[in-house]
Amino acid sequence: MNPTPTPDSRLEALRRWLDQHAGRLGLAPDSLAPVSGDASFRRYFRLQAAGGTLIAMDAPPPHEDCTPFVRIAGLLARGGLRVPDILAQDLDQGFLLLSDLGDRTFYDALRDGLDQDEAALQRHYRGALRALVALQRCPADGLPPYDEPRLLEELAVFPEWYLRTHLGYTPDAAADAALADIFRLLAQRAAAQPRVLVHRDFHSPNLMLGPDELDPAPGIIDFQDALDGPISYDIASLALDARTTWDEARQLDWAIRYWEYARAAGLPVPDDFARFHVDYEWMGLQRNLRILGVFARLSHRDGKHHYLDHMPRVQAYVRQVAGRYAVFRPLLRLLDQAERVPQADGYSF
């Protein structure tokens, strides 16, 4: 006997809300089809409308708040970026009706072989770098600060969820102290950087190819968690992409191109690329340590085990940067122990 399906009350409420706008926009609420969910409670649906398709966002209160999405969408649109237009909104219920930027992210295109066409790859990624510069020129006034306390707070998921829960490894007092020192160094260096509007997930799943494949300006989504923070954060997100592996030569190429575009636009990057490169790598290390903890939490707490598929890539990025700077040797030793990597005699913190 099949169990009785559980009614989706949110979906039913969304359909009723769309019915209210059906006549004005030519909507077909019965055509709702899931597009995707994400790491939060938000869900997205595509539906037919007069002249094409639209996207409905379901962001259930009190878990989600649509207000930042609405505010930042306007901010980025005024900066000339391709973001969804908001056609209808009900912030109390947590519903938005958005223009459709298409169904192909950079991540989808890469899985379909975009990286095999060097000219197309560079066209789209240079477009993304220019879009990043435009995003960083948007005013960040009033956005929450991405400051040292917040950067430190984020890193707590690494020992709790990655080391202890995922790997079953409990650092001893010496390792804990070494890790705390490294976290403090990373947060202090990031917080000392010039601050701009930070998307926080400026990478392949959140960049959309346009309807014209020759148009290099990407659509940008999932920007509602933007903060006022370190200028190197989003280029680290793009070049050290948690969903797509890029070798160091590619990472360096895009970091240099971004730096050149940013300088030309008058953004406050260092005049010396070598200094910026250290900022960017340390920022990427902070981000990827946090991501290891977040991916472990999404799997163990939320049952979203597919995030573990990306963990080896993030582990490699962490080791890539940690292996380049002597100050991070204690982190490598801890990872060797926690991940059961064969180690030489005499390792100690």
How is this structure best described in words?
- This protein is an alpha+beta fold.
- The chain folds into 2 domains: about 80 residues, 2-Layer Sandwich (Phosphorylase Kinase, domain 1); about 230 residues, Alpha-Beta Complex (Aminoglycoside 3'-phosphotransferase, Chain: A, domain 2), CATH 3.90.1200.
- It is built from 12 helices and 9 strands.
- The protein has a 5-stranded antiparallel sheet, covered by helices on one side.
- β4 and β5 form a beta hairpin.
- α8 crosses α10.
- It is globular, with a radius of gyration of 21 Å.
- The termini are far apart.
- The N terminus and C terminus are likely disordered.
Mean pLDDT: 93
Main sheet characteristics: 5 strands, antiparallel
Order of helices and strands: HEEEHEEHHHHHEEEEHHHHH
Report the total helices: 12
Q: What fraction of residues sit in β-strands?
A: 5-15%
Spatial order of the strands forming the largest sheet:
1-2-3-5-4
Count of strand segments: 9
* Gyration radius from CA atoms, angstroms: 21 Å
CATH topology of the largest domain: Aminoglycoside 3'-phosphotransferase, Chain: A, domain 2
Q: Indicate the CATH architecture of the largest domain.
A: Alpha-Beta Complex
What is the number of domains?
Answer: 2
Superfamily at the CATH H level of the largest domain?
A: Aminoglycoside phosphotransferase (APH), C-terminal lobe
User: Percent helix among the residues?
Assistant: 40-55%
- Poorly predicted segments: 1-5, 343-348
